Amino acid sequence: MSGQELANALGWSQSKVSKIENGRTRPSGDDVQTWLEACRASTEALHHGSELAEGALVESRHWRVVHADGLSSGQGGVKALEGRSDTVRSFQPSLIPGLLQTAEYARQVLTAVNVSGQSDIPEAVSARISRQDVLYDSDRRFEFTLTDAALRWHPHGRDILPAQLDRLLSIATLTNVSLRVLPLGASFGHLQSNGFLLFETQDDPTVIVETFTRELRITDPQEVAQYHDIHTRLTDHALSEDDSRSYIRDLATST
């Protein structure tokens, strides 16, 4: 079957088929299923193909693996994604995102999550703070949505919060940064128990979800689109940017 014949059978453009064949586009799980069915694959091949597609589109790594070479090494991969992204969207229900953390807040967070017992926390803090340079690239867009709990939570002591809240207010003045707060009592619009980062790149948009035990990297186009929709709905229920700044300012005054 030629590429054009396959495209006709699938109801796709020949260009889409060609890009998938040459590795320039990553197919979704449904794309793989449709492709195999068009080629009259056996039931066993369909099942195996679905498993391979799932493995290719969702990378799951335990934190011990992510941090095998130290906590600082994990910052490099995220920094690379941030550097390739046109837009970064973040939702955090319980802590300040790494791109917005002060050095002391980052130190306390990294100490708290150091399940693998690494000794390079100072280097990891430095690496996390260096990632923040990308915020000042006006060609990139950053959209942060935080809950009230994320603003109030502290790893080891409230004394770090005034500087952290001041940092948020400073970053919120950047024209390429949107910072929105979901206050207590607000409808979430979507039940979301895990924070996530959505990196919108020209080639393979990626979502990172951090659980207690592992990091998930999702590149399935359909799942990525779902996370985009979730972030939009959460943001729609948040305060406006101006009201969010006022909310943070009032919280800083009372802290």
From TrEMBL:
Signal peptide: none annotated. PROSITE patterns: HTH_CROC1. Gene3D superfamilies: lambda repressor-like DNA-binding domains. InterPro entries: Cro/C1-type_HTH, DUF5753, Lambda_DNA-bd_dom_sf. Residues 4-46 form the HTH cro/C1-type domain. One of its GO terms (molecular function) is DNA binding. It comes from the Bacteria. Pfam families: DUF5753 (PF19054), HTH_31 (PF13560). This is Transcriptional regulator with XRE-family HTH domain.
